[in-house]
Each structure stands twice: as C-alpha cells, then as structure tokens.
Amino acid sequence: MALWHREAPPSSASPHPRLQRRERSPARPPVPPAHAKPKQASAQIARDPDQGPLANAPPVTSSSPSTTSFLSSKLSSDITALSPLRRPARTQRSHPSADPQHCTRSHHKLVNDHLISHHPRSPQRRQSAKMTSPKRRIETDVMKLLMSDYEITLINDSMQEFYVRFHGPDETPFAGGVWKIHVELPDQYPYKSPSIGFMNKIFHPNIDELSGSVCLDVINQTWSPMFDCINIFEVFLPQLLRYPNPTDPLNGEAAALLMREPKTYEARVKDYVQRFATKEAANAAGEEEDDDDDDDDEMSDVGSFSDQGEPMGDMEM
After folding, report:
1. In the chain, what are the domains?
2. Active-site positions?
3. Packed helices 123-146 and 109-117: angle between N→C axes, nearest 10 degrees
4. Angle (nearest 5°) at CA 178 between 294 and 282
C-alpha cells in the first residue's frame, strides 16, 4: 500500500497576506497651523529680590575680551529692563489704608465710634440686643397671629394685650363652645410664659370659675421659648381641655367630679357650654368690665367736680 505525502512548501514562499507584517512609513513631523506663531526660546530669569537676575545667568568664561564685554553689556541691559519688575520692599506702602494714620480715632472719631458700637461683641450692641429682642419677638408673634384665621382684638392698640376668639376642640365635651380668651404677654416674653384667662365661664379643673385664669403651673410645665402665640390656641389650650389635670386644680368641684363621677363631670361641662359659651356670651364677656371701668371713671369725675365747684348755698325751706 503506497502512502501519499504532501510536500511542504518552499521556505521562500510568502506567508498568508493577513499574517504579513506591514511596513510602517516613517513618521512625518506635525504641520503647525497657519495662525500659529513660532515659539521663541526665552531665558528664565530669577526674580528673587535677594539673588537678583544674575542667579540663572550663564557662566562667563574668559575666552576672549570681546565676548566678556558683550555678555556684561547684555546682562546690564537685562537688569535695567527688569528693575521695575522687582518685588516692592516690605516697608513700602502701596495703599492709603496701610498708612498707620489712616482711619484712626484721632482722624475719624465718629467713624470709629460707630464701628465700635455696632460690633457684635461691643457692650452697646449686646445691651441693645437684649432690649429689642423681646419686643421684636412680640411683634413677630402677634403679626403672625393676626394673619391667621383667629379673630384678634387688640386692647388699646397694644401688642402685649389682646383678645382671641377660641372654639372648643372637637370630640370633647367642650365642642361647640366659643370663648373669649384674654392674653397678656410679659416684657420677658418668650422666656416667660404669657398669662391666659377665659372671659366667659368654663367648667374645668385647671381654670378658675370666677376669674377664668388658667393655672400657672400647668402653663409653665408645657411652655417653651420655642412656642409662639399660635401654639397657645392650636396646641396648648386644646390639650388642656382634652386632658385636664385634677391633681393640681383651681376648681375643686370640677376636679372631684372628674375623678369620682366622670359622666357627671361631662354633663356639667356641656351645661356650661350651652349657658355661657355661646357667641353672644363671648361678645358680651369683655364689655361688662369695660362698662364698670367707665362707671368708676364717671364717679371719680363727679367727685372731683364737686370738690372744685362753687360752695353750696343755704337750702330754701
């Protein structure tokens, strides 16, 4: 049996075209754009005021006297050209504000007094801030309350004393009631809690039935300088009516009924709401005290007139 052998190709045969190594053409130098300017070599000259421009100068050799004279003249011209670029001395003052006599107390006393008084750490600024911050806070809180949905009535156009119409919270025995609340803001507000009083009657353990004043201990326990006037009517009073505290009462009868007979307490609260917490009663609550004050003023005026008047004559029989 004869075997057929394939002869190997001669070594001189060229390899596969994909395996052939392509010869790269020599790299061409990049062509600069038309608008580019040829770069010129610039000598780096030191600008240190201590060393001067001779620090980076090439060393001068004594090859020939002409070369030495040329280099010395060249360096002298460079030094003359670069002299304006030297750094100014530390003692030189380039701005009038650097002058020690500029804006001093002797030259500008009023300006300095104004700047010192308005400095945040000055005693005048601290004292004025202490005096104005409570007043600004009062004005801000009252203006915020006036822009709300509550009905506000200022007393004698004062920001520290006013009336607010308050409605009883829902899902409580006080629902449907309307009260006129008297609010007085102290001078230390908001660091000191305001005084709150109900002008028309309300049956509550922590509210005096006769004067309508709210227990101060209850107010101080919940009051914080972060609160404002709106929080009184949106948070404080609704929570006070929903969750009374019979352990610290101003109305002993209401506290006893709440602890012993809660249903009787709710019935008494609803009875007070129907009798004393109507819109008409709330409108007439503050007018009675105003009428009493006017009567007292009239009586005092009559007494002063009788004292200053003419003497009374004999009574005719």
Report:
1. 134-283 (3.10.110.10)
2. 215
3. 50
4. 15
